[in-house]
Amino acid sequence: MVHVLSIVEIEDVAKLVSVFSTRGAKLRASHGSHGAQLFVTDGDPKKMVAIFEWDSREAFEAFLSDPNTAPTMASGGVKGRPDFTVLEKVGEFPA
Question: CA-CA 20 to 30 A from 93: which of 8, 15, 19, 68?
Fold first, then answer.
């Protein structure tokens, strides 16, 4: 499993969440996503940060290349292309 960090500028949090939690969730799941967490940055509600869990890097890349991905993001108010960073977990600690 890999995690992906995404940072993107958005139009509106409510608009993004309404698409992210419905059409976006179905599209991500069809490519092997296990879920996501959404955050806004402190002091800038137009900057959204997401952490995704994917089966593999290839599954994430298949999601990105799906012709429905860009229009789905745009319908949620995503401005421009998100900045994605693929992460590999090297440890998890209780505190």
Answer: 8
The CATH number covering residue 53 comes to 3.30.70.100
* Spatial distance between the Cα atoms of 67 and 10, rounded to a whole number of angstroms: 20
Residue 25, in any domain of the structure: yes
Contact present, 50 and 17 (Cβ < 8 Å): no
How many domains, the chain? Answer: 1
Q: Is 80 left (phi over 0), alpha (psi -120 to 50) or beta?
A: left
* Buried/exposed 26-47: b ≥16 CB within 10 Å, e otherwise: ebbeebbbeebeeeeeeeeeee
Other Cβ atoms closer than 10 A to 12? 12
- Which helix (H) or strand (E) covers residue 54, if one does? strand 44-54
Model pLDDT, residue 36: 98
Segment 24-41, tens digit of pLDDT: 999 999 999 999 999 999
Q: Domain residues for 57?
A: 2-87
